[in-house]
Amino acid sequence: MKAVFIDRDGVICRNRDDHVKSWTEFEFQPGARESLSRLAQLDVLIIVITNQAIINRGMAPVQTVEHIHRQMVEEIEKAGGRVDRVLYCPHRPDEHCACRKPQPGLLLQVSREMGIDLTQSYLIGDAYADIQAGETAGCCCFLVLTGRGRNELRRCLLHSQNGFRVSSDLESAVDAILREEDIGGVGGEAIES
């Protein structure tokens, strides 16, 4: 089984300097719902994987984060898309857990649980931490330039181990994945480091 792992903040929804702490603060990126609808045509699992340290920082309780995710999935489904699973890490960076990106813990966990071949899977993110997690797990990685992507591109270029692709946004990354899965083409700009 293949999967497309997608970061939440900066990819599906807009980043906020003060974090998304409620559903009223959640704002979809332009074209995100439509892109996820198109991605749902593929026979792949669609999994949102996100760091949510706001939980352990005491900025929002688990129930609020899970409510945001339920609402997000409902809105995506209304647009004809789907999300098969949402995984989040509640830990702060100083807790040094195995599940917070750039660690690949959540990817490895869901791979075992759902029988996902990570080397045949994709990861779409807007930060070097996303690319690191995906590369470590063996995924084909896309850095989108929405969210923190433009600021993170230099770090990715300097430190990426396996190369990654650059896409302007989620829509462009989904286009590339659809091309690759349907006709074997390569989408996005490949970056070798």
Please describe what this structure looks like:
With 193 residues, this protein is of the alpha/beta class. It has one domain (3-191): HAD superfamily/HAD-like (Rossmann fold, 3-Layer(aba) Sandwich), CATH 3.40.50.1000. Helix content is 36%, strand content 17%. The protein is built from six helices and seven strands, in the order E-H-E-H-E-H-E-H-E-H-E-H-E. It has helices at 32-39, 62-78, 105-114, 128-137, 149-159, 170-183; strands at residues 3-6, 45-51, 85-89, 122-125, 140-144, 164-167, 189-191. The chain has a seven-stranded mixed beta sheet. Helix 2 links the parallel strand 2 (45-51) and strand 3 (85-89). The longest helix is centred in the middle third of the chain and has 17 residues, at 62-78. The two termini are 28 Å apart. Residues 183-193 have low confidence and may be disordered.
